[in-house]
Design goal:
heterodimer; A: 322 residues; FAD/NAD(P)-binding domain; five-stranded parallel β-sheet; B: 109 residues; alpha/beta; Glutaredoxin; 36% helix; 27% strand; globular
């Protein structure tokens, strides 16, 4: 018999909504937080498009509330990381970083996506020394200094606008000559006197002059091939995300970009394994769509468990073994 | 909220406090979401290494000088000092087990 009816991996809006719904269905879910607990909203400031908050809500506050709400109905939230999953045999087994493991009849994968880095090596090497993927964490260190933001989507412009609170100047480097960002963000960015744009260009290198701190970037114009060096103190990278699916390679059907393929709602190709949120969505990627798909996964898991002959009655499910 | 085993370092006491033994310092700030995620890990490490290694936090908002000296421009950052010398740097989030192994490595040598 499995230790659990349902295990949820990931603690962003998808995972916590799945936890809320499965908890209310009396399935006593175990949610494993993961390293980036709370998900991407933990890196944001004001969230203005979460319905129900007309004046917006701070991202970290929203996640604290979601977690408390899931816990209120009996979801067990566990700090830690899943290092290995076995989805070949049933019940499924998850093994944690501390060597312990848990078995479960159903699994909801909500591991989300993490910030993508440039593929040049020097950006990662200087992470924490001038290169960052988190404006709200690191903007503070660039008071009165010139910086760059790489990217052209909503998050890039949001970071650029946020960073003008600190930086003397923010240069947005974007690969194309138009922005992907929403009209409202574009208007805000264009109206901000501290923000400048470099179009049709990519960051070819980040240089530290041997000092261990960012000194300049090399910008390459993709149309002319011309390279220019831009002296600055910080680079914020906002070029999108990659799904956190390395754990499932070879066990779950992934698409060519590494996202989990779902069908008929939240179902994966393995019966009893469901996926929700950014780990299976590269199109919408909103907090609200992640939460919605977390709800779908919870309902799909509940239905699946009802169909299992050995499904524990709720009383038996009260026992925990982790 | 922080465990009492976690020491608080400042610009003023930093050099004294890091001069002896193995010392792990967590650079953090109130407004940093990932720092909040790392806090329970740092608390747990302080209990785990109690009496063997020092685990401390330094608020970068209140203490701008030390982060500047060590070129810390991103948080959370963990610096590990051994006998007053900077021995390791971890930028960003890391599993507790990984950090514990790093501390062990320096305690053993």
């Amino acid at each position: 018999m499995a230790d659990r009816n349902v295990v949820i991996i990931g603690s962003g809006p998808a995972g916590l909504t799945a936890a809320l719904y499965t908890a209310r269905a009396n399935l006593k879910p175990l949610l494993v937080e993961g390293l980036e607990a709370g998900g991407q909203l933990m890196l944001t400031t004001m969230v203005e498009n979460w319905p129900g908050f007309r004046d917006g809500i701070m991202g970290p506050d929203l996640m604290t509330e979601m977690r408390a709400q899931a816990e209120r109905f009996g979801a067990e939230v566990m700090q830690g990381n899943v290092m290995k999953v076995d989805l070949q045999s049933r019940p499924f087994t998850m093994t944690f970083a501390n060597g312990k493991s848990v078995t479960t009849d159903s699994l909801i994968i909500a591991t989300g996506a993490s910030a993508r880095w440039l593929e040049i090596g020097s950006d990662r090497k200087l992470s924490g020394h001038g290169v960052s993927t988190c404006a709200t964490c690191d903007g503070y260190f660039f008071r009165g200094r010139p910086i760059a933001v790489v990217g052209g989507g909503d998050s890039a412009l949001e970071e650029a606008i946020y960073l003008t609170r600190f930086a003397s100047k923010v240069t947005v480097v974007h690969r194309r000559d138009t922005l992907r960002a929403s009209k409202i963000m574009q208007d805000k960015a264009f109206a901000n006197p501290k923000i400048e744009f470099i179009w049709d260009s990519e960051v070819a290198d980040v240089l530290d002059g041997g000092k261990g701190e960012v000194e300049s970037i090399v910008v390459r114009n993709l149309k002319t091939g011309q390279q220019t060096t831009l002296p600055l103190d910080g680079v914020f990278i906002a070029i999108g995300h990659t799904p956190n699916t390395s754990l499932f390679v070879g066990q779950i059907d992934l698409d060519e970009n590494g996202y989990i393929r779902t069908h008929a709602g939240s179902k994966t190709n393995v019966e009893g394994v469901f996926a929700a949120g950014d780990v299976q969505d590269h199109i919408y990627r909103q907090a609200i769509t992640a939460a919605g798909s977390g709800c779908m996964a919870a309902l799909d898991a509940e239905r699946y468990l009802e169909g299992l002959s050995h499904h524990h009655p709720p009383e038996a499910a009260l026992q925990t073994t982790t | 909220m922080a465990s009492e085993k976690v020491k608080t370092f400042t610009d003023n006491n930093f050099d004294d406090e890091t001069s002896k033994g193995v010392v792990l310092v967590d650079f953090w700030a109130e407004w940093c979401g990932p720092c909040r995620r790392l806090a329970p890990t740092v608390d747990a490490l302080a209990s785990e290494f109690d009496g063997r290694a020092t685990v401390a936090k330094l608020n970068v908002d209140e203490n701008p000088s030390v982060p500047g000296r060590f070129a810390v421009r991103g948080i959370p950052t963990l610096l590990l000092f051994k006998e007053g010398q900077l021995a390791e740097t971890i930028v960003g989030l890391r599993a507790k087990e990984d950090i514990a192994q790093m501390i062990e490595r320096h305690l053993g040598a």
